[in-house]
Amino acid sequence: MFAPRLRAARDRGLDLILARVLPSGALGPDLDDPIALHRLPLLLAATGHAAAARRVLQRASRFVNDDGDVRLTASHRSFDPGANDASSKLHAPLLLGALRVGDAALVARLDGWFERLRKARVQGGSGELHPRAGDGATDLASTLRVASVDLALARTADVHVAAGWITSLWSQQPHRDALLLRRDAAGQLVSLWPASGHGLHAIHALAPGSGHALVGDALAWCAHARPLTSGALHDRMTRTLSELFDFAVRAERHVHRVEDQAALAVGAAAFARTLRSTVPDTALDAADLAVRLALRVCESWQPGGGFGVAPEGELAAVGFDREVGVVHALHETLALLDEVEPLRASREAPAGWRVVLCNVPEVKAQEIADAVVSARLAACVNAINPVRSTYEWKGQVERDSEVTLLIKTTADRVPALTAHIRAMHPYDLPEVIALAIESGEGHLPYLDWVRSQVTPVSEPPRMPPAS
Hints:
By secondary structure, the chain is α+β, with helices and mostly antiparallel strands. It is built from 19 helices and 4 strands. It has 2 domains: 3-348, Glycosyltransferase; 353-453, 2-Layer Sandwich (Alpha-Beta Plaits), CATH 3.30.70. It has helices at 3-20, 34-37, 40-46, 50-60, 88-101, 104-121, 136-152, 156-171, 173-179, 185-192, 199-206, 211-225, 231-251, 258-275, 280-300, 316-348, 362-374, 414-424, 444-453, and strands spanning 353-360, 380-393, 396-410, 433-437. Mean pLDDT is 77; it is low at 80-85, 123-137, 181-209, 307-314 and 458-467.
């Protein structure tokens, strides 16, 4: 029911953006600036406007020199990554856009800049990114940008380094507190560049932003990167993702800036995508959060309004870039709605889960229980021992001591589970009876854990929730 409203807002914003794109790829004299251009190719490519994306990217590449430095305007010097890496906010989306449209030459130029940045931030040859003292939010913002490049270029080792650093930073209470507070980003950058000459243009464009937006960015990156990790790092990433999402849920009512709502919506959408096959219920919760945030964006955002910044002059590019970010968030949320609709239908469909009863001789009970759990045909097997069974078989009344197995699974796994039990059971006619669990009855987080345990996945299964 929400999709038409979100789609209308996205299409209105996208139409206004496309109307600014000239045949040359420029956006007009007031927006001929990498701040206005740097995120636009990604949005255009994602929404099916590949030709326009290539034109804009070609125009943006004129601001990138042979060393990969991005100049804010023709009259401004480029950034030295050895001195400050805040302009990675421009470099990272440009590189990702070039990667999306297949501009290998521009990818190589921008990647060279990131390599210089990486070398500038290595401490003592350890390969670890070192934080600035007391400035965790700025470091998180720049590290996420570098890490997004590593993730896009499939540099698994560098992704692991970034994942370790990000989870470590989030676990430190002083840094976490700093991230959750609204930051005076403009004043912070003035102190970093007291004589830079870039003026408000650079300050507004390159500021780390509020903690809400940073949490959204971190949630999105960690959601995409977690499948590349394993072992202890995977566990840390899982905990960090859970904490980031919990923060996003708690902060929902307190997020008032449209760009912050958009960033959190993108993060929640990415988190939902990673959980679709493993924890559908949490995935739907994350999708619902993304939709609520996107609807709030629609309530307060006027397409073409520039977020209240000057419609002309040096801040025009900032307002335009923020609109690009909002349209991207609406597009991501719409795409997510299509992806999770089957999950919602599956959760609401009756008889999604089953409790299977199976009586077996005691000597075979543990073997069968271990086998069906290992094969991901059952999430959990309870063995009730002993039970006395009385039945007639081949004209005689039999009385046996058996073990009753209570097997928790889903309806779609019952046929394979039955075949597995028949192959192992010593009886000619083994008992396998599947009892339906009515939709919505029971503890849904546990039922979703059951589903995750019997769904073949490439990553380690979740532990059952504590009782």
